[in-house]
Amino acid sequence: MSTENLEQKIRKMTIWFSFLFIFYLAIAFIFLGKYPYYIYDFNYEKAYEILKDSLTLLAAFLAPVAAFILFSDWRVNHRLVNNEADVLGILKDLETSLEQIRTESTNFLSNSHFGFYDGALKNYDNWTSKNLNNLGQLNSRVLFSRKSFKNTDFHDKCIELISKQNKLVIQIILLVQTYTDIKTCEADPAQEATIPGLMLQKLRAHEKFSDLMMDYSLNFEADKNAINSLASEHRI
Question: 70-85, pLDDT tens digit by residue?
Fold first, then answer.
């Protein structure tokens, strides 16, 4: 955020130019005046010339300085508006992603306990591939946006939450592959010997997924509140 608004800049500029105007008048009267001052006969014509010259000089300096301040303020405001839109866009997409992944992960955990319907594993395989791609794009977008900000707390928190979602999705991919391998082996008597190893792999993957899911769910509201709070710092 800008440390000074336009009104403060104009006020400061007015003070400085008023000081310079008075200083110029004082110097001019000192050099053009006659001594001793207490018997000096005030010359209105000279005073008018000095005043006119000082105003001309003041205007010559004031015009470019005022133009520079106005342009700088417009540029700062334009950047702040763009940054606000960028942050709010990222916030919206991240909140949507957080909700979707929580819902699908909860459904997957439930289905893994009660059994998958026909075609469910294929659907989860497609879903995980799509979400990994979406999360990768969102992460790249956050990293690119981060370069335009001095305060990067919002972006750092977003990167943290995207990483948390990635871990969940990757764990679902491992479980889907394990369930698929088990089904394949159960249908092929020649591969029955590999089933115990796959069952152990499934158990371990399930334990890790459950831990990740518990952490994700317990911190879900706190994480959403955190990114909303950090995003509000960039609202104009």
Answer: 556 556 666 777 888 9
